[in-house]
Amino acid sequence: MKKYFLFLFSLISFFQGISQEQSEKVVKLIFDEALGSSVAYENLRYLCKETKGRIAGTPQAAAAVEFTRQVLEEMKLDRVFLQEVMVPHWERGNVEYGNISSVLFGSREVPVSALGRSVGTGKEGIFGRVVEVYDFEELEKVGSEKIKGKIVFFNRPLDPTLIQTFSAYGRAANQRTSGPAMAAKYGAIGVLVRSLTHATDNIPHTGVTRYEEGVEKIPAVSISTQGANLLSQWLKKDPDLTFHMITNCRNLPDVMSYNVVGELWGTEYPDEIITIGGHLDAWDTGEGAHDDGAGCIQSIEVLRIFRALGIKPKRTIRAVMFMDEEMGQTGGKKYAELAKINNEKHYTALESDRGAFTPQGFGFGTQGERLEKMIALKKYFLPYGITEFKKGGGGVDIGPLRQFGIPLISYIPDSQRYFYYHHSPKDTFEQVNPRELQMGSAAIAALIYLIDKYDL
Prior knowledge:
This protein is an alpha/beta fold. It contains 13 helices and 16 strands. It is about 40% helix and about 25% strand. The strands form 2 sheets. The protein has an 8-stranded mixed beta sheet, with helices on both faces. It has an 8-stranded mixed beta sheet with strand order 3-2-9-5-6-7-8-4.
């Protein structure tokens, strides 16, 4: 009997070894297919160059919807469809102007960029003395008496000592998202926010701000890091200097837009859905190459790679181009809402929204045995220099799927350069390396293949 079990154990181990060897071969084929193809890179080129400025609610966003829908249709997938979603409609306007005036130093124009959802200043703009603060605690200490009628200048930089750049961004972002509403409570007439970037340059980085009900909506702009440094230096010697800002942005009624969805149906469990996606909208000041045209194109590329290699997944693989991540996150919310209404069975979801840089690994938003099994997939990626498999994952657009109790996965590329481009005019197609883009596409496709194959 003992010999029988030893023989059985050896046989099982033998077939498991074959299975691993076969999987390694498929992973190699996936990387070969991705790295030998220029389809994704050319799709990204079109998306960036022909739908530049595709913030939700704009004709450019509508063009991006139609382009990605056509790309999916031409792939002859099992199903391609659109999901209706109402999105906010905000227009930047043509004129953005910022100027520092000092009796000691003279006048200096500095680059500014209106924050998304901000109200405009009106034709003449607003003038005011400036109060510099670094965080909300300091804002509270300064108080209404010294803030009322002035422009609040939030000047907290990204912490350069944090190796994880998204952590640095997360610690500084509230001054942009909530700063204008907070400053308005103390009587401020406008807000300047230091650009959330590691770069020291004259290019302002935009981003959304959120007002509060019952609190006056005041104009808010980002100021380039060089402009912020100059303003801070001048303020130290001339606290009575003034700032003049002009913006013509405005909020319009919500409009209809769409999530774009393509599917490869599963052969064994077609009702179980694996979602992969990125967001189609991008800030109007750039081309949205890293944020997040690349994530959308990589999601589409997973389906193309599966089709090219004849991989037939057991579960339905669904690529989703989410609309309106940047301002209202309505696309991700609508996707989860429809999943619940339609009684869909979601298995896992992965989001690519950290740029198209060299892949480092994945973060897994699950726990227990499932987490251990997903992290154990690392062995398949070591030959490709992809080594970071860790606990903790998700994303803005797939976040609402957490209600279904499924693992949420983050694709993790190298992040050291990301915030040099993020939300700025520098986020262009030319900043994407085709090999890095396709290494990421292959990594995502390989992970989805393995999760599906091994029922993880």
